[in-house]
Prior knowledge:
The chain is α/β, with parallel strands linked by helices. It has helices at residues 13-21, 34-43, 54-57, 69-80, 101-115, 129-137, 153-156, 166-182, 194-203, 224-227, 245-261, and strands at residues 26-30, 47-50, 87-91, 119-121, 142-147, 186-190, 208-211, 219-222. Helix content is 41%, strand content 13%.
Amino acid sequence: MSTAKNSVKRVTTSILQDMKDNGQKISMLTAYDYSMARILDDAGIEVVLVGDSASNVMAGHETTLPITLDQMIYHAASVIRGVSRAFVVVDLPFGSYQGNSREALQSAIRIMKESGAHGVKLEGGEEVKESISRILSAGIPVMGHLGLTPQSIYKFGTYVVRAKEVEEAAKLKSDAKLLDELGCFGIVLEKIPASLGKEVTDSLSIPTIGIGAGPHTSGQVLVTHDLLGITKDFHPRFLRRYLNLYDDIKGAVGQYIKDVKSSDFPNEKEQY
């Protein structure tokens, strides 16, 4: 798809559905600021996720739970200003949609109005169906998220692979079909067996985006900071690091420090 990026003015949910129907894989990465979003968009990414993972990689929290709706809107608005082509979906943060469908709708409306985003994502299945239905009734595109759901980390107690047991796998399949029937435009499947990722993908009409869910999903997503090697302490099996920017940036900064201290910077060419 990226090779034809100039032929598509704006990626939409319809285009994503066409890609699923035609067997074209969907690429998705996270962004939380204007500069990174502009790079991803220019590279031809189809979907940019303004993830609540900003709580981890941008703010340094241990979990995704502390980030607020106001902070998500700030990050989303920054990303939108850097994007001219990709579809931008924003995570509804913990506490902004669970248990109260009216609050869920208001949270989604705020994201759409105040950031200019194109859709929202939320975690869960049957337990959040009322929130999903209410958001969809307002014409807001919704992406689901099943499997390992980081906002439920204290319920699960661990980040291990989900749905390995028959009962949990059956619930995931049921929830996935429910999200499809409700009208979600796609579902993120996180850290589940590859065979289950394929089974769920084949059973749905809508696209699935995998992260640690095997190669048979409709597309893949990674946290950009992990892909680029900006983060160092995260080593899940599903992660492929394409660069090692932590060490590259550290080296560049170290060289800058040396040049400043030796008065090599600025040199004659760098002076007015």
